Amino acid sequence: MALTLAGLAAERSLGLRALTGDDLLDRPIGWVHPTELTDPQAFLEGGELLLTTGLALDEETSPAYVRRLVAAGVAGLGFGVGLSHDAVPRSLVATAAEVGLPVLEVPRETPFIAITRAVSRAVAADEYAATVRIGRAQQELTRTAVGKGGPAGVLRKLAKLVDGWVLLFDRTTVVEAAPANARAYGASLREELERLRTGTRVVELDGQEVVLQTLDTSARRVLAVGASLDTAGHHIVNTAVSVLSLALEQDRAQAAARQALRTGVLELLVGGQGELALRVLTASGAEPPPAPWSVLAFTGAPAARRKLLGALESEPVFAARRGPSVVAFGAPDAVTDAALRIGGLHGGLAGPVSPAGFAAGLEQAELAAGVAEAEGKFLVSAAEHTGRGLLSLIEPAVAQAFARGLLTPLREHDETGRGDLVDSVRCWLEHHGHWDVAAARLGVHRHTLRNRIKKAEELLGRDLDSPGVRAELWVALQARE
Q1: Which of 124, 286, 344, 383 has the most CB atoms at less than 10 Å from its CB?
Q2: Are 182 and 201 a contacting pair, CB within 8 Å?
Q3: At CA 326, angle to CA 322 and CA 332, rounded to 5?
Q4: Helices H, strands E: what count in the chain?
Q5: Please, are residues 435 and 446 in contact by the beta-carbon 8 Å criterion?
Q6: b/e map of 11-41 (b: 16 or more CB within 10 Å)?
Q7: Which of 469, 474, 463 minimizes the C-alpha distance to 384?
Q8: Is the preceding peptide bond at 28 cis, omega within 30 degrees of 0?
Q9: Residue 203: helix, strand or coil by DSSP?
Q10: Using CA atoms, how far apart are residues 268 and 78, in angstroms rounded to an integer?
């Protein structure tokens, strides 16, 4: 911490006495400058403690002198008594009190050099502390970046080091925040981000200074830091910018390599080389999902597909690009949940399949995804798509009679107003028996949906876990339409 006027006045060996500005003694002292000039403004930068014996001052000239010092931005005035003046001129004290300039009386026994030395020691100690702080911060940020923390860890570390909040933007979208609730500031900074092309911009947000700094990355990334930054703080932020730029570029390169590897593994599976594909996946450090697999294929805008791949990085699934699709297998609920959150995606579901049957399962999933996209649906299962093809082979009257016979118990139940079994069964089958997804589409709790399906089983006298029963129900539901 910089030495303040109060800290200097507290040093008993100097014998200083505050005559004015008791409420302003928390001002930091940037340096000490002794001068007997009546107008030293040209030689000041602001923040100095000015020392004078008042050799050229008197009661008449003191007020204007004080006002010139205030205009120059000095931190305070040290007035030495016992030489030119036995006491500080009354007009000087009165004017200083009026304009808010702290005045310290310096006794005859205290040489100005003693004050200079005291301030110099404090400035040197402050600079040394800042240097140590910067060095330690650089080490901590670097260790975090190259360790398991990665870019997100660097942001959390930086927020602690500057005692503030930090945001990382991809263009104008917040991708990381520390702490998490700092995301709320993102929308307020959007206009400034759109104006910022490169370099640094300092803005004010809710009375707080916010530094916006572009990163040296292939994608347009911006770091926002909301904190009261001193010189050391600015150095720490600059270090974080460099470390983050390197870490993000490294992550991008590694992500590209992982995607290329997974695409290669996917091609091996499609080519019928399942055993080799699994060996390659295991050798790369990944753990293949246990077979058999439910295979999903999602189409959509490139940005949505990129987001889906990114979201699945932390899930226990295999996901890779294949032409205009994202293909995934393992933990289908995690895949569909991520796709629902992102939005704008249409998927097909097939399986479960073994590694040997993967190519056929993928073909079915991609065909179902095409149907989902054409009809504006989120997810279509291969069983649903196949069921439609079978229905086209049956005479409409026969199909409708079959539907009436099978669905009558459910329809009669629904007519009593005790539930929506027909729509619930349809939605549940549409989403391949995924409780959470189907419940969300129906707008009910998954336990409510489970109870409805159980009731349907009781009324139909059939086991809905049976693939054959599901297929018959689906044909009946399509025929009823």
Answers
A1: 383
A2: no
A3: 130
A4: 17, 15
A5: yes
A6: eeebebebbbbeebbebbbbebbbeeeeebe
A7: 474
A8: no
A9: strand
A10: 82
Return the ∠ at Cα 262 (arms to 257 and 265), rounded to 5°. 130
CA atoms of 170 and 99, how far apart (whole Å): 48
| The pair of three-digit structure tokens given for residue 201, joined into one six-digit string | 């911009």
**In one letter, which amino acid is 109?**
E
Q: If we measure between CA atoms, which residue out of 160, 178, 188 comes closest to residue 223?
A: 178
The whole-angstrom separation of Cα 335 and Cα 218 is 29
Q: Which residue has the tokens 């036995």?
A: 86
Quote the CA–CA distance of 246 and 162 in Å, as a whole number: 21
Return the DSSP state at 4. Answer: B
Q: pLDDT tens for residues 292-344?
A: 888 899 999 988 888 888 888 777 788 888 888 888 888 888 888 888 988 99
Helices 467-480 and 421-430 pack at an angle, to 10 degrees, of 120
pLDDT per residue as tens digits for the range 89-114: 999 999 999 999 999 999 999 999 99
User: What is 381-433 written as a DSSP string?
Assistant: EHHHHHHHHHHTTS-HHHHHHHHHHHHHHHHHHHHTTS--HHHHHHHHHHTTT
Torsion angle (degrees, nearest 10) of CA 156, 157, 160, 165: -40
φ, ψ for residue 85 (rounded to 5)? -135, 140
Taking a C-beta distance cutoff of 8 angstroms, is the pair 213, 223 a contact? yes
Is residue 128 within 8 Å of 120, Cβ to Cβ? no
| pTM of structure | 0.46
